[in-house]
Design brief:
Distance between the termini of chain A: 23 Å
Radius of gyration of chain C: 23 Å
Number of strands of chain A: 12
CATH class of the largest domain in chain A: Alpha Beta
CATH class of chain C: Mainly Alpha
Distance between the termini of chain C: 30 Å
Radius of gyration of chain A: 20 Å
Low-confidence stretches of chain A: none
Strand content of chain A: 15-25%
Strand content of chain C: under 5%
Low-confidence stretches of chain C: 1-21, 296-301
CATH architecture of the largest domain in chain A: 3-Layer(aba) Sandwich
Chains: A alpha/beta, B mainly alpha, C mainly alpha
CATH superfamily of chain C: MetI-like
Structural class of chain C: mainly alpha
Largest sheet of chain C: none
CATH topology of chain C: MetI-like fold
Structural class of chain A: alpha/beta
Oligomer: heterotrimer
Helix content of chain A: 25-40%
Number of domains of chain A: 2
Shape of chain C: elongated
Mean pLDDT of chain C: 80
Largest interface: B-C, 51 and 40 residues
CATH superfamily of the largest domain in chain A: P-loop containing nucleotide triphosphate hydrolases
Number of helices of chain A: 10
Strand order of the largest sheet of chain A: 6-7-8-3-9-10-12-11
Number of domains of chain C: 1
Largest sheet of chain A: 8 strands, mixed
Amino acid sequence: MGDKNVLEIRHLRTSFFTQKGEIRAVDDVSLDVPEGKITGIVGESGCGKSMTARTVLRLLKYPGKLVGGEILFDGRDLTKLTEKEMAKIRGGEISMIFQEPMTSLNPVVRVGKQVEEALRLHRRLPAREARRQAVAMLDAVGIAEAEKRAHCYPHELSGGMRQRVMIAMAMICKPKLLIADEPTTALDVTVQAQILNLMKRLRDNGTSILLISHDLGVVAQVCDTVYVMYAGRIVEQAEVCELFDHAAHPYTRGLLGAVSSLGSGAATLETIPGVVPNLLHLPAGCAFSLRCGECRADCAGHLPELRECAPGHRVRCHRIGEVSA
Amino acid sequence: MLLNIAKRLAQALLVLLGVALAVFIMLRIIPGNAIITMMGEHADPVIIDRMTEELGLNEPITVQFLRYLKGAVTGDFGTSYSMHRSVSELMGAAFGNTVKLALAAAIFAWLLGIVSGIIAAVRKNGLLDRLFMGVSLLGVSMPVFMTAMLLQYVFAYLLHWVPISRVTDWRGYILPAIALGWNSAGSIARLTRSTLLEVLQADYIDTARAKGRGQLGVLTRHALRNAMLPVLTMMAVQLSSMLSGAVICETIFSINGIGRLAVQAISGRDIPLLQGTILFSTALVILGNFVADSLYAVLDPRIRRGSES
Amino acid sequence: MTTNNELPNEELKLLSQIGEAEGPWDIFRRLARENKLALISFIIILLFVLAAILAPVLTPYRFDEMDLANRLKAPSAEHLLGTDEGGRDILTRMLYGSRVSLLVGVVPTVLSMLLGALLGILAGYLGGWVDALLMRLADIMLAFPSMLLAMVIMYTLGDGLINIFLALTLVNWASVARIVRSETLKLRESEYVEAARSIGVRAFRVMLRHILPNCVPSLIVLFTLNIPSAILTESSLSFLGLGIQAPDASWGLMVNTGRQFLYTAPWMSLAPSAAIMAIVLAFNFLGDGLRDVLDPYMKNS
């Protein structure tokens, strides 16, 4: 801490406007991505973590819409930029990799060309130089025979290779911030570990990373700071060791329980009862109260603040201070 | 891939053979003697006998078919009865006119169809989308003869933009091309719109945007390349069907093409000519389908280089 | 569907959610609610049907009633749509012509669907040489330019309404057979047909009870889309003089006779052309709407 932040999100709100009403996918989210660190957002699917990531690059699809808040990057508020100015930032200063390496590459364009594309767009390099750098980058992300692979079409590569291509594509312009949306979810475990190591190497070389994952194991391996999201809101934030050792929010503890009971070989799999709530019909108060084992009568009534319970550790729960962590 | 194409080619040839047989049989199960149908009820029996002999109609049907096939392979489709010229010569002359009409119609249809399809997709649910899609459905639903007559009435009769009487230079092809291309433009526009909308939902479109491509770049460099694959297939099929003779259009505008030749063969009860035109047209359609399939395989790397992965 | 009784409750609930267990009436209501254009089209088609049935009541003239004193008269109070070159009332001939168009739209389409569905199921389910033979036959039929094929068949059979039915059936069965075959192939591998076979249900029963009901949505869509194409083909054939012959009335034939008087009596061809377009358009809209309602996966919104 104490370092400069590459990205500061303040009170961000993103909603889907459907016929049945407004769905608040991202509700008053504030977070910092410090320079040269990996910051994680973790939560179940549908909690708004991917929407947060997409909102940063303003890649929302209809009927999603940015409602309010600030996204401060490099002293500028991204929410105020025009589409044209935004296009200059995407891929140049902030880039993003997606969950599905199988479908995120254009099937009819050779991968070398797809990697070069951002270079030619942002740096206006001549073809030959762009190709040279693209091959070098493919090599750097661990693709053997990069020269030859650059001529392949995506379907000719394995899933792990494709995700490496995606990373090469994202890193080619040396962006200040890399947003990785579930980069390892679609891959098998050994490939997953390789990709995570690659991301750590990128961080050690100075890239700041915002990592989105539903997998606490992934987060524990690579992240420095972690934000836990639930139903569009941040419910807990802490340094990674602090979070895993002293999880305060009942939801986080539930998530950790589900993981550790798997690891310890316990006879019963611990799960969080109930399902992710319907975002159209959230309670006025704590969204987790419907599933929370420690819920009290007034929990659903009013929304708890995100309060500091230890240095650098904030949590959104009425019962903090009462329950032991 | 070469093996694939060879396999498809063999299949196409097999279908062509089947077509030849089907046409041959169809034209020989006409109730009553084919010669009488051609010459009329009160023809001289001596002439009928001589004709039967000449045409080889007294031989078994298999022999007749094989002889016809042998001729067809060498480009000899027999002699037309109503026009007293060799069928292949007549078809050669007619095909030139059909090609001109088909190319003009295809270019008109494709330009109009693709452009309006793209605009409709980009402005989905907007005013232009509704307008173009309404007009294109109108296009698909209008019979060619109606379009043709409407065009004649408005542009030749009311506005005098083109002469009413048929001219043989390029101006004579403007109205026919529009009339013939109108339907195709409608279906191309609808297909372009729907495939483009589908492609625009794909993950790699997000990737392209995340790289910093603007709307135009995403469209031209990523979306269209994928969306155009099925459209190209439809274009190839449309062209071959236009080349195989636009029966109604050629009849209305008195263009001496393959389609009109077939109509003339029917009204002249001219079996060799009818047989020739049908076989020729169908061969073109089969060729068109073959080209469309191969085109798809060549343009889509997933099929082209599928064996390597 | 009676088969639903064998399903456990949860699956039944699931089915009703994804729309499989909807009755025809539910589907119609959904169509009417979601797609106004399709509803209007449906009403237009109903009006055409009524006009065809009530033709003798709606008009004081007979369809072949000549009146040489009143040739080529422009629309007026006595003749709402004018008269043709024989002084016949055009509105009257339009009403009778709608009988031809509707019959030609429906009868051969039904026949070709029955034939195509039967052959398609046989090919898909039995496979082997039956499949190969039937599909090569379908390839051959599909290779013909459909207009030319219809022309040759009409030439061989001679003109007349029944022969038009036959010609259009022969032209259209192949595409139906292909669709039903591929649907059958898909379903043949599916788990519940496997399950039915594994408990010893006979092949024929499996086909009828399980495969056919699953083809119904795509067949209905195909049905509504084949009707307009059959109507167009008939009008084109009659236009070329290969279909309905005067003094019988068919819209295509009427356009053809009108063509000679295009510049002097444009109403002669205008009215039947407009009628052809209206009914074709109505069926296309209805078919589009039905496809969206019946097949949620095909719609792109």
